[in-house]
Amino acid sequence: MATVARRGGISLPAKPSDSWLTKISRTPAVTWTKETASSTSVVVGKLLKSTGKAAWIVGTTFVVLVVPLIIEMDREQQLNDLELQQASILGTPPN
Fold this sequence. Notes:
- The protein is 73% helix and 6% strand.
- The chain has a domain of 27 residues.
- It has a two-stranded antiparallel sheet.
- By secondary structure, the chain is mainly alpha-helical.
- The chain is rod-shaped, with a radius of gyration of 37 Å.
- The N and C termini lie far apart (105 Å).
- It has two helices and two strands, in the order E-E-H-H.
- A hairpin with a 5-residue loop joins strand 1 and strand 2.
């Protein structure tokens, strides 16, 4: 095995030939798989980001529009129940 002299008097071994792992990692199938995985991760990231934005829009719309409607409907139901209770106490027939 040849050695390469470096400054400082230390000799390092020459770079060995590519290992079997390096050879396998350079095959077209592995390269294609790496590229596909990378592209898939980018698409999934964008999908999650847009899904998060959509969830935020739906959530805030629900809070701003639907929750006050539910509260108002509950108040109206309580008022109707109170009127019905008063009418039954006073003996007048309910409407």
